[in-house]
Amino acid sequence: MSNESSREVIQRYLEDAIAAERNFETQLKTFSKEGEQTPVQNLFAEHAIETKHQHERLAARLHALGGSPSTVKSFFAHIFNFAPKVAQLGHDPSEKNSQDLIIAFAIENSEIAMYEELAIVAGFAGDTETERLARTIQEEERAAAKKVWNLIDASCRQSFMRVTTNHANMA
Ligand SMILES: [Fe+2]
Q: What is the pLDDT of residues 131-140, one digit of tens each?
């Protein structure tokens, strides 16, 4: 049985969150260049910047606790990483933006849960600073998830029109 100090556990959770956010930042930058729907691309580009700011603040907190970000891919980074390749299978290229929105919505909500864990553990350990940071970033993820959700309607209608128009042209 492992026996870590509460500080070590919080450091490890911060490392996990940093790796997940770095991974997601890369994914968001890729999403911002995909497809043809400008509002979707712009949202991803904006959230990539916000995500960079998130992992920077997490890294600053980790340093303050005497740790440093690990180069090893975390548990969450692995979970958030596998989805895109799977979801792309069998879809028309014009559906790319809708697919990216669905993936991003899943990731944002996973992050909300990830920060719930960090906030609870930090609060339990009496580390109010880490708890406050986790709650602040969690609110940013909630706002981002809402923006992503609000774009799904227009995006999938547009994708559907495009796919069915291509079909009509070919028939
Ligand atoms: Fe994030």
A: 999 999 999 9
